[in-house]
Amino acid sequence: MSETRELLILGGGLVGMTTALAAARKGISSHVVDMADPAALTQDGFDGRASAISTASWNLFANIGLADRLAPQGCPIEAIAVTDAMLPGRIDFRPEPHANSHEGSLGYMFANQVLRIALFEAARAEPLIAWHAPARVVSRQRGAHGVSATLASGETLHARLMVAAEGRRSPTRDEAGIKLSHWDYRHRAIITGLTHEKPHDNVAWEIFYPAGPFALLPMLDGPEGEHRSALVWTVAEKDAAGVLALSDRGFLAEVDKRMQGTFGQVHLNSARTSYPLSYQRTARITAERLALVGDAAHGIHPIAGQGLNLGLRDVGALVEVLVDGMRLGLDPGDAQLLARYERWRSLDSFSVAAATDAITHLFGIPGRAASAIRRLGMAGVQRSGILKRFFMDEARGVSGRLPELLQG
Questions:
Q1: Are strands 79-84 and 203-209 parallel, antiparallel or unpaired?
Q2: pLDDT, tens digit (0-9, with 9 covering 90-100), for 251-281
Q3: Distance between CA atoms of 312 and 293, rounded to whole angstroms?
Q4: HEC secondary structure over 98-123
């Protein structure tokens, strides 16, 4: 029989492992269970994805001791350019320089592989984390006095609170009977890496076309000084197979058409991958001795790059609630603590999910009239310092009540 720990975290991806490390920094022990082999998740070319890490999320990584590992491998996002099909009327978000260098940027771009390696190395060195991977859960139990999970190996893990961090298809959430709102955007995100002739100047581009957004995200220059960006191109599901089947030359011609020469000549530097886009939100994020974090609680469109950041805010709030409760002698699975976590996270997650969904539909309306109205509104935002600061604070994740771990 395993040692009883405070947390039983099911899912050891970016959000799950950050939960374990953040909890450990506050003296809270955990079991972490993941089906995937860590070696497979960190190998070159596993999925090619990159993530925009907001200012608040960077603060979280710094506060749990990952800054030294991560800082040299992240590309600062110094500005965001938002445009409707590269027509006049774009918005340029560029924060004012600040004494704290992290406050003067809009975040950082990291390859997901880099984030995984940093998290996994830290977890291996942390005695308060018992990491079980690859391991498959065959049964889960939650009761008045604790939780447990039995693995395919026959081992049973015991804890006080179960945390579901398994992603959008969380079996723990489904087994708990938590209702889920869901719809399919009928779009697919195509992801690849680009090398380009001109520097990106640390600017992230969000180019909206009626068929879907076309995002160019700045990455660090390559070992030979080559300029690099990550591409996230949203296409209609009915067109995705054809786009993916294009030769490299044909694919680059389509990319260049949408970039309109912004970065000069472009080349591919990685394979193309894709995944379907959908929206989902749970009716609640807690149940008896259970808390949901990350995509298990809310899956949103990647249009603003807020999915992972939303999950990291879950992490900060949950850990703070648990620490405050345990100082008062409460059990980590106490219903009062879970209710506080529910209240804290519900409005923020709903607001971000609703905003990304609204933007997706707004920019998906075809026609010149719709484009003209959008660009008129964008030009108004460009001229308004108050509105620009509001949107920049949202992008940096520093609006509203922030958990302590996400503060600078």
A1: parallel
A2: 999 999 999 999 999 999 999 999 999 989 9
A3: 8
A4: CCCHHHHCCCEEEEHHHHHHHHHHHH
Q: What CA–CA distance (Å, rounded) separates 315 from 13?
A: 13
CA nearest to 92, candidates 102, 83, 105: 83
Look up residue 17 and give its two tokens.
């492992």
Q: How far apart are CA 202 and CA 219, in angstroms?
A: 8
d(CA 3, CA 157): 7
Assign 13 to helix, strand or coil.
coil
Distance CA 325, CA 338 (A): 10
H-run or E-run covering 206: strand 203-209
Q: Are strands 227-236 and 212-219 parallel, antiparallel or unpaired?
A: antiparallel
Q: Tell me: cis bond preceding 95? Omega within 30 of 0 counts.
A: no
Phi and psi torsions of 232, nearest 5°:
-125, 105
How far apart CA 349 and CA 297 sit, in angstroms, is: 9
Residue 403 burial (C-beta neighbours within 10 Å; 0-12, 13-18, 19+):
buried
Do 32 and 9 form a contact (C-beta atoms < 8 A)?
yes
C-alpha 365/C-alpha 384 separation (Å) is 25
The conformation of residue 405, written as its DSSP 8-state character, comes to G
pLDDT at 173: 98
- At the second CATH level, the architecture of 4-181+278-406 is 3-Layer(bba) Sandwich (3.50)
Integer Cα distance of 184 and 340 in angstroms: 31
214 membership: H or E segment, kind and range = strand 212-219
**What value does the mean pLDDT take over residues 76-91?**
90
Compute the C-alpha angle 223/224/229, nearest 5°.
70
* Cα(52)–Cα(395) distance, integer angstroms: 10
CB 95 within 8 A of CB 28: no
Backbone angle region of 366, left / alpha / beta, with phi > 0 → left and psi within -120 to 50 → alpha: beta
Structural Rg of the chain based on CA atoms: 21
Question: What is the pTM assigned to this prediction?
Answer: 0.93
Domain range annotation of the chain:
4-181+278-406
Length, in residues, of the chain = 408
Which has the closest alpha carbon to 272: 241, 300, 303, 302? Answer: 241
Q: Which helix (H) or strand (E) holds 385?
A: helix 385-396
Residue 196 bridge partners (DSSP):
227, 266
pLDDT in tens, 142-158: 999 999 999 999 999 99
User: Tokens 């609006």 correspond to what residue?
Assistant: 399
